[in-house]
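Pilot study result, target chain (83 residues):
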Amino acid sequence: MELSNDVLELIGKRIIELRKINNQTQNDLEFLTGIDTGEISRYEGGKRNITIKTICKFALALNVHPKELFNFDFDINKYQTEN
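Predicted structure:
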C-alpha cells in the first residue's frame, strides 16, 4: 500500500463516476480536455500521475468544482506508522 498510488486510484474512480453521472464517454472528455482517450484511461485507472492543471481540465469537462475529484472516502490512519 502506498498512499500516493491509492489516492491516484481513488481520483481515477471519481473521474469515472462523475463522467458516468454526466453520461459522458472518454471520447467526450477527450474533446473537452484535449487529452487523448489512452491518457484518460490511464488517469481513470490511477496509472498516471495527475497535475493540478489536469485536475482543472477534468473539472471543467465534468462541470464540477475541482474539489469534487477528491470527494471520496479515505482512511489516512491505515498509512500511519507506529513509532
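One observation from the pilot: The helical segments are 3-21, 26-33, 37-44, 52-62. A full batch analysis is planned for the follow-on phase.
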